[in-house]
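User: Some background: our group keeps a shared notebook of sequences we're curious about, and every so often someone picks one and asks for a predicted structure to add to the entry. Today it's my turn. The entry only has the sequence so far, pasted here. Could you supply the structure so I can complete it?
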Amino acid sequence: MAATPLAAPSKLPLDRFLSLFADVQRDEGARLLLLAFNVFLILTAYYVMKPVREALILAQPGGAEIKSYSMALQAVLLAGIVPAYGALAGRLPRRRLINIVTAFFIACLPVFFLAAEAGWPVGIAFFLWIGIFSLMVIAQFWAYANDVYSPDAGKRLFAVIAFGASSGAVFGAYISGQLIGVLGVHAMLLAAAVVLAVSLMLFNVIDAREQGQGAALRQPAAAEAPIGDGNAFALVLRNRYLLLIGLMVLLLNWVNATGEYVLSSIVQRAAEEQVAAGTLSREREGAFIGAFYADYFQVVNVIGMLLQLFLVSRIVKVVGVHVAVCVLPVVALGSYAIAALLPSLAVVRWVKTAENAVDYSLQNTVKQMLFLPTTREEKYKAKQVTDSFIVRAGDVLSSATVFIGTTALAFGTAQFAWINVVLVSVWLVVAILVGREFRRRTEAAGGQGA
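Assistant: Of course. Here's the predicted structure to add to the notebook entry:
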């Protein structure tokens, strides 16, 4: 008589609940939820600090212009900071690296608080600091997530972790609005420091748990070893796959930042037209613009969260990462073509809403997945290059595009939209190449499809 095959062990209740949103297998729920909550706290802290950034830099003369120029200065600083981070990673195991880097950023916040309370002009310094923090610490988190998950598991589960980031952004923006009137602007820095400290403690709990269950790690022994001593920029420059990812990120941010200028200019023009028509007072112009953006950001965030929670993991499962990475450039191509042909506020608002909602959900998740089939050194070092320096380089190229277009060429909204159509066409080609290389790498690494 043939033996009856043993039934597969049933999922735990947490695994079954999370399976509503992604393909969560047995015993994966606890780690997944802890990592999602960890990035939730990091994004909450960041969005608690964002209003302080605006208050400090815009309160000084020429604040709006200084803010624009500071974006370029961030790229310059990152050109030196990223190699320094790589050198540190070459000497430390991952837990000590993350502890030291995050603790440094936490320690800066009381210093900024005391300086601001003393009336010192810290607006530029804090703007530069928070820009570097928002890129490096988040990239560091995703490097860790890439390190503890195999490519197959990451493709299944990263959508849930990314939802933690999306919801943290929404929650942080909400509580900052609730707390700033009670605590005051500067005290928000101390609140953010507390949230970041909790996130760091949680990370140590997660990593201790991972090392206690060493068999669950892809490279149990490597967790205690230094990450490697290669130069971060050299890692990208000598690797075709990483170069393609970097070019894709550059084009994405170039397009997105230029698109934000298109939206800003058309909103400003709509307000001025209402003032000229007498339907809006000059004193209410700022309120009109503020109300527009408050509603716009809320809609983008809500749509992005819904996409993240219910569709992203399913899209990746059905079409694969190699196709999913092309979705945003296709959406953006259609969006900017429509905006170029019909450059009205209603049209531009909704095409930008579609672009940003897909960017914040599907594109952000897939971008993190692209580093799954890379080495540990590439995850921690090359990712800092693409997710920090190259992001800011894209912003700088956008600023140069806007400057030349407005001062030398007298471009209007339609012309800038056509520029983005051209850039997105190149971006789509690069995304196809990235997707093909990702698929080749994952199949070579484990015989798994993309």
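Suggested note for the entry: The longest helix spans residues 240-277. Residues 230-450 form a domain with the Growth Hormone; Chain: A; fold (CATH 1.20.1250.20).
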